[in-house]
Amino acid sequence: MSDQPKIELRNVSKSFGSNHVLRDVSFSVAPGESMTVIGGSGSGKSVMLKCILGLMAVDAGQIFVDGEEITGMKAADHDRIRAKFGMLFQGGALFDSLPIWRNVTFALTQGRHKRTSDMRAIALENLERVGLDKDVLDLRPSELSGGMQKRVALARAIAPRPEIIFFDEPTTGLDPIRTDVINKLIVELVRDLGITALTITHDMGSVEKISDRVAMLYEGAIIWSGPVSELRSSGDVHVDQFVQGRADGPIV
Amino acid sequence: MSETGILSSLVAIFAAIGRPVVGGFASVGRVTLFALRTIQRALTPPWYPLRLFEQLFQIGWNSLPVVALTAVFTGAALAQQIYTGGSRFNAQSTVPAIVVIAMVRELGPVLVGLMVAGRVSSAMAAEIGTMRVTEQIDAMVTLRTDPYRYLIAPRLFASVIALPVLVCIANVIGIFGGYLLSIHKLGFNPASYIEMTNSILEADDIMMSLVKAAVFGFFIALSGCYAGLQTRGGAAGVGRATTNAVVGAFVLILLSNLLITLTVFG
């Protein structure tokens, strides 16, 4: 079935105490599509990703991956679903006790020992895809710059060839040139590897470069969604304020 | 003060007492669940033997210097105190007996437990806590590796294995410290000192020493890993986790020591 969404959220809600982080969130991402969710800091974007990854349980609603409901799934089944996902964490989240090549191949070895020469070859192949070379293989994450760490993290996320990849603020903290490098990499990866992408960001430049569709999360609810071409003519005052980056408006 | 005012301040007092008590019980429950979950996961594959050896080296081998120093100084000081105290009623000759009993039954396990807790619980909490706040734990889950099996179980087992070995070494070194001081300063005869030590020491004492050590080892890793995994809120959170880990380990060690001693001798 070709029109079955890759990821679908139906009326998902999540709160921490009296703080309603997600309210009745529903949207879907089609296979091969690059979807971006925008929203201010603390609008619930990260929590949404963590719910889809099964790192947090939702309070209400359902999440489907390839038509399979993952909310309330058993741990063993969840592990099978997780094999479809790759995730680029905001700070990279590289394992700082391991050299770069072990980081990149971690999803394949799952921390166990596998033939070093094979693993190094796979690490190199993925590092080259993100524009790094063999010089970094034996370094530790702390010896790399922020931009390089992010690229290594990207290489680690794509190494097991996931079907879906999540980008959590992929360009935050990078200079404009590095930002563009990462944006280009995301576009290439989605196109070349046919990966479905779900990005959360508040970097508007990056939104327009990498997305097919955009949704805006405000106070835990989706207030607008549509193709990226309509983002600047959404007619929603919240979206306009966010897109234009103005301090005055309904969002304070 | 009006009647409702008195009533509400009474309620406030009870609430102030009740909140930490309820909180305390809740923590005990959470730590217990955490321990059970770790053990349950650790008994099913995948296992990580390399991580276990790494932790054995960290906890066991790297703790040797501090454990040896603590033991030798304490053993020597103990001998001097017993000699001085005993001389008040002509009981100086009990030095070898009391040194060996005190060292093996109590001081060896407790001192090693506390020293290793200071070294290891804090390090575990800081490492796992930093991994938590930098999302490395979440990343591990998304890379389909169970942090309980990969990070926690090796630490727990390594600590349970390493502590009895360390305590054995500390017992020997502590008794030797007492021996050195007694021979060179207090004028004991070496041969009779050793003979008295041998005759007083029983297999049960050694057994108790080892059981205590294993229990303390469990609590050291449990406290460190639990505090680490609970870490929230950046560098300050890691600091708090480290403190909680050490304080938690100390309390658990001293409390379980008392309970074991009372169970066996009470």
Could you describe the 3D structure shown?
The complex is a heterodimer of chains A (252) and B (266). By secondary structure, chain A is of the alpha/beta class. Chain A has helices at 45-53, 75-82, 100-104, 106-109, 116-129, 146-158, 176-192, 204-210, 237-244, and strands at residues 7-16, 19-29, 34-38, 60-65, 68-69, 85-88, 164-168, 196-201, 213-218, 221-227. A six-stranded mixed sheet of chain A has the order 6-7-8-3-9-10, with helices on both faces. In chain A, strands 2-1-4-5 form a four-stranded antiparallel sheet, with helices on one face. In chain A, strand 7 (164-168), helix 7 (176-192) and strand 8 (196-201) form a beta-alpha-beta unit. In chain A, helix 5 (116-129) crosses helix 6 (146-158). The longest helix of chain A is centred in the C-terminal third of the chain and has 17 residues, at 176-192. The termini of chain A are far apart. The model of chain A has no long low-confidence stretch (mean pLDDT 88). By secondary structure, chain B is an all-alpha fold. The mean pLDDT of chain B is 93. The chains are: A alpha/beta (252), B mainly alpha (266).
